[in-house]
Amino acid sequence: MNVFVKKGVPADIKSEAIILTLFEDSKKMTGDALKIDKLSGGLISELIASRDFEAKPSQVAVIYTRGSLPSKRIVLTGLGKQSEFNLENLRAAFASALRHLRDMNIREAAASINLNLIPGKKDQVVQAAVEGSLLGLYQYTPYKTVGREDLKDMDELNIVTDAKDFSLVESAVKKARIIADAVYFARDLISAPANEMTPSMMAQKAREIAGRKNVSCKVLDKNKMKEMGMNALLGVASGSNEEPKFIILEYSGGKKNMAPIVLVGKGLTFDSGGISIKPAEKMDEMKTDMSGGAAVMGAIMAAADLQLPLNITALIPATENLPGGSALKPGDILKSYSGKTIEVLNTDAEGRLILSDALAYASEYKPQAVVDVATLTGACVIALGDDVIGMLGTDDKLKKEIDSAAKNTGELVWELPLWEKYHEQIKSDIADYKNTGGRPAGTITAAAFLSKFVGDVPWVHLDIAGPAWTAKDKAYIPKGASGITVRLLVEFLRNRVEK
User: Fold this and answer.
1) Active-site residue among 122, 207, 218, 278?
2) 91 tagged catalytic
3) Claim to verify: residue 341 and residue 416 sit in the same structural domain
4) What does the pLDDT average to over 307-336?
5) What digits encode the pLDDT tens for the residues 150-176?
């Protein structure tokens, strides 16, 4: 969907539908809603009086104007109580309105974002509304052939504003477009079937990002990784015929001597569990085990498009985990890139193995910060549920930055402890570490394992096992791949610029 900014007054705009937001506890209409209500002969007031529309969060109602306005329809969408308002309400409200119009097979709409009435910085308000509109309309349809002509989509949304705020609104719309495109990119990668989205295809998608200004891509093949000693990654890859790839994306938007921020994303393009094989039920969803890799690729893509004055590196260890004849076996010992040895007790605890090599490699950049993103542990879903990202790390300041960014983007993050007592669970009798600490505190012991390979740099680990994939539509996240942490990482990077 294209999003444009139009100078004008919403009541005067000719459109298939004009979208208005209302608060549940507002005692009377003001601004554009009041003007449109008067011009329409009180159609909005009549609907509210009937209690058919109460402006509850994401509630949508459509009113036909019957020629009283240039627009054919008024679309009301609820923001809930003003006292409880946050930008998530706005994202969800616009997502609901646009999806409702799409379901009605309406392809164009205009929207009023009353910047004088909605709390928050004006640019953030506009960005949230447009993000919600775009992200809520996402559909993954490349493999649909039967009935393809019946697929519905929106073509155009016009944000109507006055001359005074035009430049601000235009800039915010542009940012929202860039960020939404990055989330779409990540969702597309995650949604793709594993027979298509192989490690080689992930590498190809990374090379496409490198077509942007100041972005370069380097891909290490199996032979190079063997030469470098990335044996933890190669061990996981050994059961698959698909060759692993170690993807390095570098964005050089900052000064030459500026230390980079390194983003590391788990790139398991399919995870069967290996010899410690998973149950058949829902194994198909394990194509999403590269969600972390997709997220950091999307984030660096957005950073480049936003031209952030930072140096950023994204590292994606990409492989499959399959139980082939040469697969890693429980009890095997691997010498990792860092030189530390790992006893593999469970081949389904493979994400931490490939990340151990990537994190050790990341430390060689002497970065100002390292953030890794991974669908790492089912234990995180048990502890925090489907909607929450588990956060652990070694640097309080960095954790606060991530938490602050998450609050701005509406992505739910909860910190778990990384106390020394948990590190006892990953000590091996015959190697330096073992790759599982057992059932107790599984998310924490996985992070404790990762911490052994990070080096002396500020580091945060984000476990997205819960929210990476959703089984039902949620606000502006349609069923399927969420693209979680793309917006969070971009917000974190933008905040770094403003420091």
Assistant:
1) 278
2) no
3) yes
4) 98
5) 889 999 999 999 989 999 999 999 999
